[in-house]
Amino acid sequence: MKLALVYTCLKVNDICSATQFLRDILGFEEDKFNLDVFDGGLVFTNGEHHKIVLVECAEEVQNPTILLLTNDCIRDYHSLLDKGIRFTKTPDYTDNGLIAEFLDPFGNCYCLLEERNYKLN
Questions:
Q1: Cβ–Cβ contacts within 10 Å for residue 44, how many?
Q2: pTM of the model
Q3: Domain hosting residue 15, numbered range
Q4: Is residue 120 part of a domain?
Q5: Could you give the C-alpha distances from 121 to 80, 115, 116, 117, in angstroms and in order?
Q6: In which element (H, E) is residue 78 found?
Q7: DSSP state letter for 35
Q8: Is the residue at 121 inside a domain?
Q9: Which single residue of 42, 44, 80, 100 could bond 85 by disulfide (Cβ 3.0 to 4.6 Å)?
Q10: How many domains does the chain contain in total?
Q11: CA angle 78, 101, 13 (to 5 degrees)
Q12: Buried-exposed string 22-41: b where 16+ CB fall within 10 A, e elsewhere
C-alpha cells in the first residue's frame, strides 16, 4: 500500500489575507472542483503535490509545518525573498535534501524541500 498526504487544513483568523498570501506570494490557485468537499473551507492547489484547505477560525491555532516540495530550493528561496518573505532558516543540506523555512503572516511555518538522494549505490 502506498499512502500520500494530499490535503493540509490550515486554520487562519483572516481568510481573505490568507487567500492573498497563498495566491499572490506562493502561486497557489483556488481549486474550483473541490469547493463543496470542505464545508466552509476554501481549497487551494499548486497544481502538483499539495492542496491546502483554508478554514476561518476565530481563535489562534498552532498549525503543523506545511511541507512544500520543490525541484529547485535555491530558485524558490530567492523568488520568495524578492516577494518580501522573511526566512527563519536559509537553504541548508539535510539528510532529506535541501531545506529552507519561512513563516506566513499568521505565524504558520512552511518548509521548502528539494528532495535529494545522497546514498551511494
A1: 23
A2: 0.81
A3: 7-115
A4: no
A5: 35, 17, 14, 10
A6: helix 73-82
A7: T
A8: no
A9: 80
A10: 1
A11: 105
A12: beebbebeebeebeeebeeb
